[in-house]
Amino acid sequence: MTDDTLRPSGRAPDALRTVLIEPGVARHAEGSCRIRMGLTEVLCTASVEGRVPGFLRGKGEGWVTAEYGMLPRATHKRGEREAAKGKQSGRTQEIQRLIGRSLRAVTDRKAMGEMTVTLDCDVLTADGGTRCAAITGAWVALHLAFEHCMAKRVLSRNPLLGQVAAVSCGLWRGVPVLDLDYAEDSAAQADANFVLTGAGGIVEIQATAEAEPFSEHHMLGLLALAKQGTAALFAAQQEAIGA
Amino acid sequence: MTDDTLRPSGRAPDALRTVLIEPGVARHAEGSCRIRMGLTEVLCTASVEGRVPGFLRGKGEGWVTAEYGMLPRATHKRGEREAAKGKQSGRTQEIQRLIGRSLRAVTDRKAMGEMTVTLDCDVLTADGGTRCAAITGAWVALHLAFEHCMAKRVLSRNPLLGQVAAVSCGLWRGVPVLDLDYAEDSAAQADANFVLTGAGGIVEIQATAEAEPFSEHHMLGLLALAKQGTAALFAAQQEAIGA
Amino acid sequence: MTDDTLRPSGRAPDALRTVLIEPGVARHAEGSCRIRMGLTEVLCTASVEGRVPGFLRGKGEGWVTAEYGMLPRATHKRGEREAAKGKQSGRTQEIQRLIGRSLRAVTDRKAMGEMTVTLDCDVLTADGGTRCAAITGAWVALHLAFEHCMAKRVLSRNPLLGQVAAVSCGLWRGVPVLDLDYAEDSAAQADANFVLTGAGGIVEIQATAEAEPFSEHHMLGLLALAKQGTAALFAAQQEAIGA
Amino acid sequence: MTDDTLRPSGRAPDALRTVLIEPGVARHAEGSCRIRMGLTEVLCTASVEGRVPGFLRGKGEGWVTAEYGMLPRATHKRGEREAAKGKQSGRTQEIQRLIGRSLRAVTDRKAMGEMTVTLDCDVLTADGGTRCAAITGAWVALHLAFEHCMAKRVLSRNPLLGQVAAVSCGLWRGVPVLDLDYAEDSAAQADANFVLTGAGGIVEIQATAEAEPFSEHHMLGLLALAKQGTAALFAAQQEAIGA
Amino acid sequence: MTDDTLRPSGRAPDALRTVLIEPGVARHAEGSCRIRMGLTEVLCTASVEGRVPGFLRGKGEGWVTAEYGMLPRATHKRGEREAAKGKQSGRTQEIQRLIGRSLRAVTDRKAMGEMTVTLDCDVLTADGGTRCAAITGAWVALHLAFEHCMAKRVLSRNPLLGQVAAVSCGLWRGVPVLDLDYAEDSAAQADANFVLTGAGGIVEIQATAEAEPFSEHHMLGLLALAKQGTAALFAAQQEAIGA
Amino acid sequence: MTDDTLRPSGRAPDALRTVLIEPGVARHAEGSCRIRMGLTEVLCTASVEGRVPGFLRGKGEGWVTAEYGMLPRATHKRGEREAAKGKQSGRTQEIQRLIGRSLRAVTDRKAMGEMTVTLDCDVLTADGGTRCAAITGAWVALHLAFEHCMAKRVLSRNPLLGQVAAVSCGLWRGVPVLDLDYAEDSAAQADANFVLTGAGGIVEIQATAEAEPFSEHHMLGLLALAKQGTAALFAAQQEAIGA
């Protein structure tokens, strides 16, 4: 590889950043973890409540939902606090809807009974890939919360049907690269977030051309990297839940 | 094909709904059209303003942005008016961000000079695929608005670099099908929105498993249908702009 | 009449603009129409719901209410979207309260039973007189919705006690003129909105001196024109409902 | 008159409530008064600021605007505080727009220069007719504020072109009656607010049928009463400003 | 005392402003008063409602809460109306929480039964010490409201356990002074609000160094003045309730 | 001490919880620390910006302000996210105003030049005393941010005039106790927050009787404990800044 095509982080195209998942960090939450992907750091908590939103009442099913936030100085330049602005940005809402959908895709909601789990994903430090880290960490928090319910005999089995994790990939000078950091994300030609299951299925793809449209060939290259990257994330999740 | 696998609309898996694009319907707008995809009907207007948002001031570039709305009774059941609720839903914001990104992907913003075009996409009747129809129609409105600027000698050439259109595809009982209507969208195993360019490039893919994860093979099947579907949309756009 | 006193539109002082009411345009609504008064174009839908607001619960009466909106580019210059601003303007609220009151004035709410009809009046193109067009069109949508309920055997008779329609009049260089368009409305000395019934009664008068106060004599001149103008509107309503 | 047609207050049909206007009650305001119409009590202040809203900048004209509020316990039953609810009701906005229009109708805005006067009308006790009392009192506060500016040599003459006052009338069992209190307003068949000038001109009429439509004949009866009632209000204003 | 240490108002360090409490001024309220502390003037009303907030339902206890507002022109310079801004400031919320806590400290909430009293404190004229005047006046309004309930046989005894009143003190050139007006408050080195009971107890102290930190010795000097000042306020309250 | 008077935490009346201040935890902030007081854990960041709010422009002075937030699951029961609710509670605003005032009391704002430092205090885990921990930690973050500016030669000396720290005290069964945790705070008869300087001065006292009023004698007991507690906090601050 010549200097010219070296990606900004200097990592190999298929190199994931160091992943660290520290479970049980939030004293009050039923399940929690702090996940780091390189410098990106997200606190994920799972809160269990014995009731469901109105549209599910009386159906015997549970609900899994998510909220996402970023501390004002998680970023290089301080961002305005959404609570002070009086509303969540479109980006925030888009991300928290994605996290919720991703987790529901691997949850047997009938097995939950009428219970809601809210996943709060708060970014302490942002360096790219926060929504992906949030999904990967939220799965750990959710798993631990379900285990907590089993220990309390509220649930007889864990309603999770499998693992789910997410990673971003992008095109750097025409080459697919794995797990973009902030500098790479800003400079990539295209970036894509993949939410994949432990069983190899696709839960969600969000691929966006930043500068110019990309090809199906590139799309397949990004997906191949994502599969490789999530394999490492699934292992980190397993380790975090002590499996 | 047996009755069992027949999709709800009865259309062939690769059949697009009837597309109708009526240009110039909004008397005051610099560019406009009404687009129908089957029963779905969206009014798209392009409004030109001779200034740019703060973050672009003095850079000699233009901006293209979008807003999306749905009339309260565009749907089967009346939806609450967002202006009365006092905020736009996460879904609305997600869609209008997508429309804006999609159009910017085929616009040479330097060629615009310091000018903003706002695309308003208002759904008059909803029957699935409203965001895709909005993108396809917004391109026509934008093209006409740029032509209007050329006629007024505000622009010397059309800053559009090519066409962009969008279509949704989904998995129905394991079979990829093109252009979901509302009933199909509600019942599909997975649905995906593809934003593609006239030159065959991918601008955006948003693919979501509704029930269970899907495979790469399925993904490729959906993409193939999308290419076929957008080919017809590009032709309809050409006809609408009188090219 | 000399050139000097010719009103901006060139119409005779007592000439109404061309009125067109197209019923049944909204596929999902129980009743609907598109009304045009010259270039002004308003989409009116009536949505029926089998319950009433809290203050009427258990009283065996129905409720008729209205919401009003304007598409951002219904006007010469794009207006900010109220949903994006996060609130409805005072003007919007004033108009929707007027529409609701006007329709309730000709409705036997006891005959409705506990049912709410919401009239959504959305301006597609604005060229003056939008609130009046909204009232005239809303009556058609409401009538059709009640007929729909009768066909469904939810109602045994139509709760409408008669027709209601509205028209604006104004003083142009001291002369009362009928049905102001936007240019005329901006230049008039006074303008007044009249909501009248088919039986010749007054439901509402809102008369405002724009420049200088006007006299009782002028007021009577405006009212005489309004009676003449609404006579034509009542005929158009009759035709639209197929009576 | 038989007992049967006696209006709820027992007053003669053409009897105004006792009017009291106490000028100069607000220590900090450039002009102010407390106006009582029977039990209704409104505090009106005029605040002068040496600049105009954006749409008037550089035009050498002034602006007069109004805000209206009601103390939570001005009414029989405590009303929710609008500041706590986070928005002004449609009724509040409608009223404050009316007050502003009414005062501007008798103000020579060119004579003001680039200056804004904001009239705050806050209802301390409500017993019907608060918007009319607010207009009548606001004129006094505005007059005093302009005199204050003349004393300070900011203005060389008073920009008020004449007096303006308002009164409500209504139909009680078919008989026009003057100056409705709360109980009468609730029971009237129709009620109308008239804003009239000292010179006998009409500034604004807002007439509404509460129960059933009314006739032109009734309208004229209400207007005649309003002229009689405002004559007394003009005298009370003159006395309050020490003319 | 030399000229140099004379406080801005010219009052002796331990001199309270003239206190006037006029009970029963709000016609509709169950209890009310207008309190003046020098130029500061606050209208306090107590509104009784036969239910409690959700968190108290079924507990057999009552609730006392407060809201605070300032008329836009209560101040030297007109302040923006909070209802128009769409939110209450942090200062407003802080003050109304303080008023509520202070009154609850002397109320036997069990003796109230399930009843809520809302104290509305609206500042008509502000010249320093508005929150203290509000507390002192609110106690009178509350007392009168409870007496009203006893007269109506809704309560068998008055749930007030004693009196509560508040006064501000401050450091002026190192000397503790009582009851700051606006000019003094702006110039003081420190100011403190004391909420004390008739029995000599402390309900709340809020002491803030404006310029530089102050000492324990100063703190005790301020508290001594506050005791002296509230003694006069307790007498004024007694007189107002006709005790 | 008998069992009966033992405080809930079992600590001696004058025992502070373990204090840990970890500086420099936020990668992007100019100054930061994580402070723990027992289980309470607050992340404090200081963000420097080279401009001041409007009211200070052109005065050559700086500004120090604060924002406070709590992660939804910092508490036993999940609290609703303020960004999702669309507004900050009165409690939040009260606390952030207190933090800002406290830091400004020890800052020479003229020495800052036209610069703003925003202190963000976000509670990761709450167990009582979060506002006090926030103040104590914010001082460390502010100190580090000023040192950062000195290293960058933006400031020639540190504008901090001394240390400031805060601690809560309360009355437990009549006995003053230091540094309440959540369980103690809920059960205390009175609680008080003291903001004191390293030089022994009082910056702010907020003392509130929860159940019944307390005496001056108790007040002095609480203040004595606060002086003792802050002495330990000042030492911890010194250690954190490496002094």
UniProtKB/TrEMBL annotation, chains A, B, C, D, E, F:
Pfam families: RNase_PH, RNase_PH_C. The keyword tRNA processing applies. Phosphate binds at R91, G129, T130, R131. It comes from the Bacteria. Residues 16-145, 163-229 form the Exoribonuclease phosphorolytic domain. GO terms for molecular function: tRNA nucleotidyltransferase activity. InterPro entries: ExoRNase_PH_dom1, ExoRNase_PH_dom2, ExoRNase_PH_dom2_sf, PNPase/RNase_PH_dom_sf, Ribosomal_Su5_D2-typ_SF, RNase_PH, RNase_PH_bac-type. The keyword Lipoprotein does not apply. Signal peptide: none annotated. Gene3D superfamilies: GHMP Kinase, N-terminal domain. Keywords: Nucleotidyltransferase, RNA-binding, rRNA processing, Transferase, tRNA processing, tRNA-binding. It catalyses: tRNA(n+1) + phosphate = tRNA(n) + a ribonucleoside 5'-diphosphate. Its EC number is 2.7.7.56. Belongs to the RNase PH family. Homohexameric ring arranged as a trimer of dimers. Phosphorolytic 3'-5' exoribonuclease that plays an important role in tRNA 3'-end maturation. Removes nucleotide residues following the 3'-CCA terminus of tRNAs; can also add nucleotides to the ends of RNA molecules by using nucleoside diphosphates as substrates, but this may not be physiologically important. Probably plays a role in initiation of 16S rRNA degradation (leading to ribosome degradation) during starvation. NCBIfam families: RNasePH (TIGR01966). This is Ribonuclease PH.
